[in-house]
Each structure stands twice: as C-alpha cells, then as structure tokens.
C-alpha cells in the first residue's frame, strides 16, 4: 500500500510503502473464499458483474445479509436472505429481477467484502 488518499478534504501526500494483507482485512470467525460475480442482480448493493466477493463460510445468517445460496436445483446465487414463515426469500438488489422464494436453501456463506478492478 502506497499510502492514504482523502475522499473529502485533501490531506498531505506521504508515501508509506506498507504491505496490504487482504487475509487480515477480510478475516472473520470462519474460513473464507472468493467468488467472481457474474450478472447484475446485486448492482444496487454495489456488487457488479466481474467483481469478486469475499465470502465467510458460515451457516448462521441474519435477515438481510448477502449470502451465497445453493438451491435444491444445484444452482447457486448471490442474494440477500430473508426468512418468511417456514420458507425463505432470496432478494436481488436490482428491480429488474424477481425474488426467489424457496422452502429450503443451503447457505454456503455470507459476503464480507467486495474486490473490484476498474
């Protein structure tokens, strides 16, 4: 890491030359993995096609968290999870997509970070 840059009021330009440890930044309670995003169903949450999501492998999820969900069909999707009655709603963050309603879902993990290349 070369230093810091202000996104508000300008700051003094000082080159620091630190190492950036992504494992430390994205460490959580469990093991994590990275997936490349394909599609734009999560664009309103600033997750776009070609981004990489850092996912913490865990099954305990709070309503509204963005998860990697494995459906009974064997397909996987990236959506916000909400419990509804005895089932689940997998909510996209793009009004052009419909939610997925399901009675059963296998949570692979929770998104804890996004990496993007411009």
Query: SSE string, helix = H, strand = E?
Result: HEEEEEEE
Total helical segments: 1
Major sheet: 7 strands, antiparallel
The CATH homology group name = Umud Fragment, subunit A
Known CATH architecture? Ribbon
Strand tally, please? 7
Mean pLDDT: 88
Beta content: 35-45%
From the alpha-carbon coordinates, what is the Rg to the nearest angstrom?
17 Å
Q: What's the CATH class label?
A: Mainly Beta
End-to-end separation in angstroms reads 17 Å
* Share of helix, binned: under 10%
Number of domains: 1
CATH names the topology as: Umud Fragment, subunit A
Spatial order of strands in the largest sheet: 1-2-7-3-4-5-6
Described by the principal axes of the CA atoms, the overall outline is: elongated
Query: Which secondary-structure class do the elements indicate?
Result: mainly beta
Q: What ranges have pLDDT less than 50 throughout 5 or more consecutive residues? A: none
């Amino acid at each position: 890491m070369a230093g810091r840059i202000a996104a508000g009021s300008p700051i003094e330009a000082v080159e620091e030359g630190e190492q950036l440890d992504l494992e430390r930044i994205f460490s959580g309670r469990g093991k994590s993995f990275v997936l490349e995003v394909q599609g734009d169903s999560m664009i309103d949450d600033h997750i776009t096609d070609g981004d990489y999501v850092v996912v913490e492998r865990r099954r305990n999820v709070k309503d509204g968290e963005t998860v990697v969900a494995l459906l009974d069909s064997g397909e996987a999707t990236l959506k916000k999870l909400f419990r509804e009655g005895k089932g689940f709603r997998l909510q996209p963050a793009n009004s052009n997509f419909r939610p997925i309603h399901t009675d059963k879902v296998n949570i692979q993990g929770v998104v804890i970070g996004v990496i993007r290349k411009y």
